[in-house]
């Protein structure tokens, strides 16, 4: 998966979680410490949220950060820029650990 496609997938997952939570872009932005414009850009895939912002967005939406990341096959993760591949692997690893710790794995 290329970086642009990855960012678009993240944006789509954030938009879906926001919609399911019944929040506007304005409200999500305010609660996550971002502008509505930033949320619009993230949801459209033109702006990638740094990992710490992704965690804040997830907390506001009451989802796990891993829920806002596309699942990648190993070969897809290898095609991402190193900074994204490491972040994705780290978040998925932690999510799997949490699921196992809580009997959801």
Please give a quick description of this structure.
The chain is an all-alpha fold. The protein has helices spanning 3-20, 25-32, 36-44, 51-61, 74-79, 82-101.
Considering the chains and any ligands shown, give keywords for the structure:
105 residues; globular
> How far is it from the N-terminal to the C-terminal residue, by CA?
26 Å
Count the helices. How many? 6
Stretches where pLDDT is under 50 for at least 5 consecutive residues are none
Cα-atom radius of gyration = 13 Å
Q: Which sequence of SSEs, written as H and E, runs from N to C?
A: HHHHHH
Strand-residue fraction?
A: under 5%
Shape descriptor reads globular
What does this structure look like?
- The chain has 105 residues and is mostly helical.
- The protein has six helices and no strands.
- 25% of the residues are buried.
- It has helices at 3-20, 25-32, 36-44, 51-61, 74-79, 82-101.
- The protein is globular and about 35 Å long.
- 69% of the residues lie in helices and 0% in strands.
Topology (SSEs and partners):
Layout: H1 3-20, H2 25-32, H3 36-44, H4 51-61, H5 74-79, H6 82-101
Helix pairs in contact: 1-3, 2-3, 2-4
